[in-house]
């Protein structure tokens, strides 16, 4: 009991600290806040516009432009970094009150930094770098000097503030970025519900009763609220793409090693021999912003900041004008597509075919088996380090954790022998995909990012459609496309399948759908151009 | 006993097959062959010239040019591939009789292939590729369709000939190469003596009583005999560089994944979770030939042949004109440098400093600890698969195997927990090297490749000076420089150290010495240019 009281007091203090960092003038009225709960099925996307907290100009700055445009505007002195940062701090504060998307808030540091950027531009007649003056938000697991990193573990509340920046944070600062907040994530970072005892649960701004996804869910919810224009996420099983799908933004997971991973706070044990490694990538509003992030970081030679980053330059390639060859993975029979997603997939396939691109449906692509294998790689630690991090404080497990595993692994105890066999099995799957990609000269694979839209809290389950790209180490992106519409979707309902999780048309009405594109390893540059082609086709 | 008789008969048959593949006219006289033994301290380097088996023209073709020049000569019709291949077949046959460097011989296939190359050139007015008509030799572990791959295991004699080419072999053929023989290696490939029960022991052509090194020892001995102009080797602890040092040729170990490894016959278990992976690289006579190999293979997009090859283009960079910054690792105190190597190192350091390059000596660089850690990665397989391959035939262990391990690992039984800790330890070493390379902007590390020249058979021991580059995954090369000279070396003899293995001046008199250069990961291109700079300085 003592331990319980302790942890509850600790989180109460932490949350009160966080609340204190939101200026009084930026607080929403109690009458509005009383309508906010994880059971409410309202959208809060229009609240910032209606709140009266942002000026017309601030609404325009946060809603109309992408990051690429905003940097250009700053360099042309059409807007200052201070003005822009203030607008995003305000809007992030509003988002926080509505969907609980922030973990750490450091608006004051950001505003000081923004002033520095403005001074720099004035003095030097040029910006600090390709991210000059740009407010960027990031997942809580990144270390920012002087800011806490708890990643939602109560036991990490006793850690001192970060003494060093993560390698990537160092690079972002060097290239001119303004960091103003970190965002919420799931306990252990291994669930698709961004819920933990320290910060609580992030809600989906499109519909509060649905999950914001995870593990980079706070980030995606903040982006959807336009409380950020560019966010930094991580992905080992879908953690960039799942929240992108759930909220309706773009998420890009690069090939492993291209963005430096060093100096983050890990949710588990260091030194894992897993063949699947976590990667960092951007979430945001435009494909060219994804490229802005990738190119800027890689042009900074991240291999000089991180011994694990791969020293390969960014290749700027021309837009693609030719017809593309797409492999299609429609579904895994164990996880049939919910009608809105099925409709989005078919619509995308039809539109691309009509635009002259080649579409080839692949069968038996081992989606489910790949996911089970991937999960084994995630469960290798005999010491079960995350369990120790939880138990150290006495905090309980959050509900979604138990939904994120496979029944066949319940009693599995990994051994070194297993690991040899797992690597052989992984290599066989890699070879199958590789040989098809080469033989048929596919440019990319089009597939769902998940069998459904965002689903009710704690029901997401295992992300079999995203973890495949992690197992293969293929770059992969989630592109928003179409919306759930029960009238149009009813023709896609299949009576002979069991939807997991259940499909309830009314519960997800209007929710964003998405498609997923997987490119070829180290061809991140090409995948971004392919995304541009696809987006253009789908927009028309 | 039955098993013993069996395996002895099997190898007798195999060796007789091999002998049969050497034309009668290419056989050396019995009187000469009677002087050949592993106890003889003679050099056989001049035998091809004296044997009368090669014409003057063939001597010139095999002795005077490097691979780059020979391809140019073929494209200009100054020599045919047939003429060149015949010359190298003859000379390889002579080498085989003297130092036992070949495992598989397929001269007839090679001569047919050479005729095809000549026809192609005549018909098309251009070559097949950058390796047009060039005879290339390779280590036995590569699979060449229709040729056996035993890698020296008696139990593998029952395997059928290879049904498929290794990924690299496929590329070499596509680019115009002529393959004519495979070369000898150690039992299990984990020793520095290229000795196994199937093919016997390869001797060092500079001095038969000394080791040819391993594991790519047959290749390096063949190259030193100029029975090959360009050879393909592999390296997980020094197997490219050790034989390069022992014989006095150039060996280049690239960053892992740049040359495709798929489709080779492994000496152990597939699926190892080791963080150290084997790599393929060239051995030969000129630095530009190393680049010819690297560029040709990588320009062929090896990632389309092997799901494990990294999709990163070759960068052709300009020769380096500026002053370079070298970090120096002089020695590990446990393995003091033999006088000839100490002299070579100091001579190289002095010459480079005199030429204006910056030299910084690094201390406590964890050479020995890194090697012990690396060995743990090599010993991860709980099934001890190589032991099974040996026991399957009843063949005995060759003597050198027991010298190639660390006493502290005698009773070590690896666990998954160990592997996590090993990865953390490896990362710590990587970070130390990385941070020094970045902070001081070093271009390369200059260090010994081994504490000695080639040593008497079965005394080489553990290769602590080469395995470091494998642990770090830094590209590394061995450049021949200086020769043992007891008069000059006597000033370098230290009375207060124990040389391991012992230093016997007379036994190694005249033997080639070498230096090792380690570059930065994925900067293989830069390392080749740095080698050019160093070679130019050392030649003057």
UniProtKB/TrEMBL annotation, chains A, B:
The yes or no answer to whether the keyword Hydrolase is present is yes
| Catalytic-site annotation from UniProt | 139 (charge relay system), 215 (charge relay system), 239 (acyl-ester intermediate)
Query: Per its UniProt entry, which superkingdom is the organism in?
Result: Eukaryota
Query: What positions belong to coiled-coil segments?
Result: none
- Pfam families from the UniProt entry: Amidase
Give binding positions for substrate. Answer: 189, 215, 236-239
InterPro entries xref list: Amidase_dom, AS_sf
For this chain, one GO molecular function annotation is:
hydrolase activity
Q: Which UniProt keywords apply?
A: Hydrolase
Give the transmembrane region(s).
Answer: none
Signal sequence, renumbered to the chain? none
- Per the database record, which ranges form the Amidase domain? 83-528
Family note: Belongs to the amidase family.
What protein name is recorded for this chain?
Answer: Amidase
Q: Which organism is it from?
A: Lepidopterella palustris CBS 459.81
């Amino acid at each position: 009991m003592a331990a319980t009281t302790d942890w509850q007091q600790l989180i109460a203090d932490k949350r009160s600290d966080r609340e204190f960092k939101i200026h009084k003038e930026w607080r929403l009225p109690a009458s509005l806040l009383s309508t906010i709960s994880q059971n409410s099925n309202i959208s809060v996307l229009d609240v910032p516009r209606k709140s009266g907290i942002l000026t017309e100009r601030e609404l325009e700055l946060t809603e109309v432009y992408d990051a690429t445009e905003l940097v250009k505007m700053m360099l042309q002195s059409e807007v200052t970094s201070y003005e822009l940062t203030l607008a995003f701090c305000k809007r992030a504060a509003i988002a926080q009150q509505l969907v609980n998307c922030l973990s750490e808030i450091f608006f004051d540091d950001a505003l000081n930094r923004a002033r520095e950027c403005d001074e720099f531009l004035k003095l030097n007649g040029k910006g600090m770098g390709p991210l000059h003056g740009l407010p960027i938000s990031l997942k809580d697991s990144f270390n920012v000097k002087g800011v806490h990193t708890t990643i939602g573990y109560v036991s990490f509340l006793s850690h001192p503030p970060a003494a060093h920046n993560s390698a990537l944070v160092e690079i972002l600062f060097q290239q001119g970025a303004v960091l103003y907040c970190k965002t919420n994530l799931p306990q252990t970072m291994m669930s698709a519900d961004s819920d933990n005892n320290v910060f609580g649960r992030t809600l989906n701004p499109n519909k509060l009763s649905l999950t914001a996804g995870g593990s980079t869910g706070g980030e995606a919810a903040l982006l959807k609220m336009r409380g950020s224009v560019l966010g930094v996420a991580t992905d080992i099983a879908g953690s960039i793409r799942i929240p992108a799908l759930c909220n309706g933004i773009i998420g890009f997971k690069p090939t492993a090693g291209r963005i430096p991973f060093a100096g983050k706070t890990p949710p588990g044990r260091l030194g894992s021999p897993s063949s699947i490694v976590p990667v960092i990538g951007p979430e945001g509003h435009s494909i060219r912003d994804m490229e802005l992030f990738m190119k800027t970081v890689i042009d900074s030679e991240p291999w000089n900041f991180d011994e694990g980053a791969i020293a390969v330059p960014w290749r700027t390639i021309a837009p693609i004008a030719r017809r593309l060859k797409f492999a299609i993975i429609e579904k895994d029979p164990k996880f049939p597509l919910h009608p809105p997603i099925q409709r989005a997939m078919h619509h995308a396939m039809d539109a691309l075919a009509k635009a002259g691109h080649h579409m080839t449906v692949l069968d038996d692509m081992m989606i489910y088996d790949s996911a089970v294998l991937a999960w084994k790689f995630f469960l290798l630690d005999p010491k079960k380090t995350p369990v120790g991090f939880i138990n150290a404080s006495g905090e309980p497990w959050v509900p979604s954790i138990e939904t994120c595993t496979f029944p066949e692994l319940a009693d599995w105890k990994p051994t070194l022998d297993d690991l040899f066999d797992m690597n052989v099995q992984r290599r066989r799957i890699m070879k199958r995909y590789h040989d098809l990609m080469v033989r048929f000269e596919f440019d990319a694979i089009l597939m769902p990012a998940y069998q459904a839209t965002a689903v009710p809290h704690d029901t997401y389950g295992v992300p079999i459609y995203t973890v495949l790209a992690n197992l293969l180490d293929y770059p992969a992106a989630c592109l928003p496309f179409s919306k759930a519409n029960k009238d149009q979707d009813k023709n896609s309902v299949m009576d002979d399948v069991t939807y997991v999780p259940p499909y309830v048309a009314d519960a997800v009405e209007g929710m964003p759908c998405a498609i997923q594109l997987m490119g070829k390893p180290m061809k991140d540059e090409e995948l971004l151009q392919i995304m541009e082609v696809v987006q253009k086709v789908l927009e028309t």
